From TrEMBL:
Gene3D superfamilies: 6.20.440.10, Aspartate Aminotransferase, domain 1, Type I PLP-dependent aspartate aminotransferase-like (Major domain). Belongs to the GcvP family. C-terminal subunit subfamily. PANTHER family: GLYCINE DEHYDROGENASE (DECARBOXYLATING), MITOCHONDRIAL, GLYCINE DEHYDROGENASE, DECARBOXYLATING. Signal peptide: none annotated. This is Probable glycine dehydrogenase (decarboxylating) subunit 2.
Length: 480
């Protein structure tokens, strides 16, 4: 595809403006000379319809959730209802300056207050802060809250326990917050091994970070025992809430022993994600940690809603102003649209969809941890290695068939991992399409593995150097 600059032709105009009927002002009579351009800006000259066509075509080069299923495990790529965009575009919200006085933004404050309380209700936590901008940022804020809690108690706790199935952000956040992460090995069933935990738990451990259901999609059945072991030594339980889509309306983390957690509004609560944001990663805490939450807090008084800065033990600000407000508007819309049992229904459907897919796929791949999963599951592509085909090749070949690839090589405890999370928003027909694509690829591996190894064949670009593409972004048109 050509760049918009390459479509430019001198004199082409996007719009024509009627001739003005007021005297012309020379720019240099208004602006100091040094600030004026010597040469015209190098802008592409194209008619309006070319601009529209160009960006419409560009937008469909990439795969996205509005094109088809997006089964990225751990990411909860559910459909983002369009009504979320409608409410987030309300002028009363988009036109708000973050420094507008409280009495002029009561509606926005009420929305934040209500969302905090809705998340507290969903999670069984006592207080919520909407400030953190993403899951990893929520982890960091929560770890800082835990550090402040122990500082206040006069306890010196250095270590954070993290299961080997955890997301890489967990140990990274622990290290950035000044703790030392310690890995604990999963048991043979893929869940936390309590004997191993008992060995590693001691009074210098601040907390254990647990993803529940874990990244294999398995519910931590022994969570109460885990809580007893950790609380017994004065430690805290942190829940990585990225998989809350399996629990909403069914299990409240605050009621099964967790002291603190983060939410990924851009996962569970249907706000768009990918491409670097914006997201939102609120944190929820039980009452003993509430005094340390980021400030300002939002309060409801007889005179209305207001920000309170008098939170003397707060860790301080976690984000400029109050977090990514318009993401919160989308998540709040989603929660209200679900109504009474809607969130529980969404979680149950997510679980049914995952188990339906698993039942169709487990014959084709290897299931390293055969427990019954909740909303996502992990298979292994090791059976195809003897044909010279890696999981990466299968993922790339899926793109040729017009479906997005699942998460691969995560969690790291499964070799050649393929991690699928269909979410509740996909129909049985779309799930069947995914199954038929995977079975077609498995047949190809038997008959013509080379076509899989060389994939993708039909995408705008073939195989990218993914590490370089992410670290060395080059989005500038330089040949001008
Ligand atoms: C997505 C995810 C995170 C990190 O969340 P971000 O919003 O991407 O920062 C942490 N843990 C798990 C299990 C996740 O899936």
């Amino acid at each position: 595809m050509k760049l918009i600059f390459e479509k430019s032709s001198p004199g082409s105009r996007g719009i024509t403006i009627p001739k003005h009927d007021v005297p012309e002002i020379q720019p240099d009579t208004v602006f100091p000379k040094g600030f004026l351009r010597q040469t015209p800006a190098e802008l592409p000259e194209v008619p309006e319809y070319e601009v529209v066509r160009h960006y419409t075509n560009l937008s469909s080069l990439n795969y996205h959730i509005d094109k088809g299923i997006y089964p990225l495990g751990s990411c909860t790529m559910k459909h983002n209802p369009k009504i979320n965009e409608t409410t987030a575009a309300f002028e009363g919200f988009t036109g708000l300056h973050p420094l507008v006085p409280e009495h002029l933004c009561q509606g926005a404050l009420e929305l934040m207050y209500n969302l905090e309380h809705a998340l507290a209700e969903i999670s069984g936590m006592d207080a919520v802060s909407l400030q953190p901008a993403a899951g990893a940022h929520g982890e960091l804020a929560a770890l800082m809250v835990m550090a402040a809690y122990f500082r206040k108690k006069g306890e010196d706790r250095k270590y954070i326990l993290i299961p080997d199935s955890a997301h890489g952000t967990n140990p990274a956040s622990a290290a950035i917050a000044g703790f030392v992460p310690i890995q604990i090995a999963s048991g043979p069933s893929g869940t936390i091994d309590c004997t191993e935990l008992e060995k590693k738990m001691n009074p210098s451990v601040a907390a254990i970070m647990i993803t529940n259901p874990n990244t294999l999609g398995l519910f931590e059945q022994e969570i109460e025992r885990v809580a007893n072991i950790v609380h017994g030594q004065g430690g805290l339980l942190y829940m990585d809430g990225a998989n809350l889509n399996a629990l909403m309306g069914i299990v409240k983390p605050g009621e099964i022993g967790f002291d603190v957690m983060h939410f990924n509004l851009h996962k569970t609560f249907s706000t768009p994600h990918g491409g670097g944001g914006p997201g939102s990663g609120p944190i929820g805490v039980r009452s003993h940690l509430a005094p340390f939450l980021p400030r300002p807090r939002i309060e409801k008084t007889n005179e209305g809603f207001r920000f309170s800065e008098s939170v003397p033990q707060s860790i301080g600000k976690a984000h400029s102003f109050y977090g990514n407000f318009l993401v919160c508007v989308r998540a709040y819309t989603y929660i209200l649209m679900q109504g009474g049992n809607g969130l529980a229904e969404a979680s149950k459907r997510a679980i049914i969809n995952a188990n339906y897919l698993l039942s169709k796929l487990k014959g084709m791949f290897e299931q390293t941890y055969p427990g019954q999963p909740l909303h996502e599951f992990v298979l292994s592509g090791t059976p195809f290695k003897n044909k010279g085909v890696k999981t990466l090749d299968i993922a790339k070949r899926m793109l040729d068939y017009g479906v997005y690839a699942p998460t691969i090589y995560f969690p790291q405890i499964v070799p050649e991992a393929i991690m699928i999370e269909p979410t509740e928003t996909e129909t049985q027909e779309e799930l069947d399409r995914l199954v038929s694509v995977l079975s077609a690829i498995v047949r190809e591996i038997e008959t013509d593995p080379e076509i899989v190894v060389q994939a993708p064949h039909t995408t705008p670009v073939r195989r990218l150097d993914e590490a370089k593409a992410a670290r060395d972004l080059d989005v500038c048109f330089k040949s001008l």
